[in-house]
Amino acid sequence: MKSRVPKRRSTLEIQDSGEEKKGKEEKDASGDEDDDHNDDAPEVLVGSSEEEAADDSDSQKDFIVEDMKKTGDKESSDEKAVSLPRQFITGSQLNHFQVVVKALMINVLDETFLKSLYGGDRTKRYAQEMMASLFHFDERMILPRLENLKQRSRWTDRYKERVECYPKVQLMKLGLHGSVCEACKLQRQCSFSVNLSGQLYDLNSLQEDQFMPSDTQAFSVCSVCASRTEVYHALKHFKYHLFQHCRTVMEEEKNGEEEPVKETVKRVFTKLEESGWISEEYEKFQDHLNEADYFQEEKLD
Length: 301
Known about the structure:
Blueprint: E1 13-14, H1 24-29, H2 34-37, H3 50-53, H4 64-70, H5 93-109, H6 113-118, H7 125-151, H8 157-165, E2 168-177, E3 190-197, E4 217-221, H9 223-236, H10 238-252, H11 261-275, H12 277-294
Helix pairs in contact: 5-7, 5-10, 5-11, 7-9, 9-12
Domain DUF4211: 62-206
InterPro entries: DUF4211 (IPR025451)
Region (Disordered): 1-62
């Protein structure tokens, strides 16, 4: 039976590019004081959304979402340091997305913020609320779809690792050549070249690794693996690119005056919300989620 793959917009290039700090002044600058964040802390997100209550599509019934239900929403190892009350992990996807954007903005001003948040070093209420939204974003919205895409593919471990490491990808159409796809190792005509590049980075803190900054990887792949790579890579590295966008915006919105972190984030976020930037980024994110949901398991020859 033929697998139906709805048309998706073509995106052939995704390019966007320890000691604690001494003194109370640096603590204030990082936004760790109650006065810096409590006024601007996200509201507690209560009430499950319709999105969370809805059943998953048939293509996802047999993977990680089911596992999470059966284990009572068991916490992953990535959030082991933070125990989250249930009322913190509900709410609409848009609310969670907005809180994630604010967390990324804070991290632009204080590059240790996300690292300490994921590490459990910040235990105040606002930190738990941000961690809850990040957990929902990472573990409930992105991870299940990535797992589904991987499990339904024949990708080698080496290819998976490369796609997950490099934040930039370029897919180039080639003439038909070769008989073995370098992604799945199946006997298929290779009609695309997947070129991976960019700085390696930590998935939680988003801090870039300066090791081999100019390294690139290239693979000759079949059309099925090229399409799957495009969808998988866009979702896998979405948060990293969103952070880079936030960095650019924060740089553009500098007013040359010293102001508390919470005031800067509140001012810039409000401006972005009024201009429609937040909605545009959220729609892009929804597009990537939908593309992953609708990507069918390939029909093997």
